[in-house]
Design a protein that fits this description.
Fructose-1,6-Bisphosphatase, Chain A, domain 1; 2 domains; 240 residues; D-Maltodextrin-Binding Protein, domain 2; eight-stranded mixed β-sheet; five-stranded mixed β-sheet; alpha+beta
Length: 240
């Protein structure tokens, strides 16, 4: 089943990637309805959702950020069809999609794709690989020894934490797509998300970070390959 599911995830992603790379017309960037996740959906969000649903609905019930619960089945598919919609709208190349496949409440397969460059990351019980929509073949995901920055999602909404990070000389960027940032966590020094946590945003990403130092609460998600930095940032989160 996993091989077929992965194939269908890739095929759906290629359709969306091709559409985006060929240049979206203004109609795709118009706002539609308020999605199940509480954000305003762009028409490209709904288009991507339809493509994923057409390819994946045979595998189980889909829980999508845009339309909520779709279909039924023993398995549950947590879908964010466009992760980083504001980036896509603004022409900033950091946006993708995330999919977590669950059974009995536990994620056993995840797929995260970057529609800006074609990268995708897949994890199951037996492997964790990186590939590309542009070519065949997979590579093992390993922890990179290099890294000079972290990724701090929602930094703009947390000025006090930003002040503490500056005092501690901890460098970060704020790219604006949570699942993608978690997918790249093995390359950067850390990933921090501080804000409203929704399952659509983090189900696949947390699954792909299980081998890293991980802290998860109702307010924060922190992952890091560096235990000393992990402890330092965790201390900052609860400072005072």
């Amino acid at each position: 089943m996993i091989e077929k599911f992965l194939k269908d995830c890739k095929e759906a992603s290629k359709k969306i990637y091709t559409l985006i790379q060929n240049g979206l017309s203004d109609s795709y960037l118009e706002y539609a309805t308020i999605g199940a996740g509480g954000d305003r959906s762009l028409k490209i969000d709904l288009y991507a959702e339809k493509i994923f649903c057409d390819n994946l609905k045979k595998y189980g019930k889909i829980v999508s950020e845009e339309s909520g619960i779709l279909g039924e089945g023993e398995n549950e598919i947590i879908l964010d069809p466009i992760d980083g919609s504001d980036n896509l709208f603004s022409g900033f190349p950091y946006y993708g999609a995330s999919i977590a496949l669950k059974k009995d409440g536990k994620t056993f397969f995840s797929f995260i794709v970057n529609f800006a460059n074609g990268d995708f990351f897949i994890k199951s019980e037996n492997f964790y690989k990186k590939g590309s929509l542009l070519y065949e073949g997979l590579k093992d995901v390993r922890i990179a020894k290099r890294g000079k920055i972290g990724l701090f999602e929602k930094a703009y909404a947390n000025p006090e934490l930003v002040k503490y990070f500056k005092e501690a000389n901890i460098k970060f960027r704020t790219p604006g797509a949570v699942a993608l940032s978690l997918a790249y966590a093995h390359n950067v020094d850390f990933v921090l998300f501080a804000g409203k946590i929704r399952e659509y945003d983090i189900a696949a990403g947390l699954h792909q970070c299980e081998d890293l130092n991980l802290f998860y609460s109702k307010d924060y998600i922190l992952v890091s390959k560096n235990v000393e930095l992990f402890d330092e940032i965790k201390g900052i989160l609860f400072k005072g």
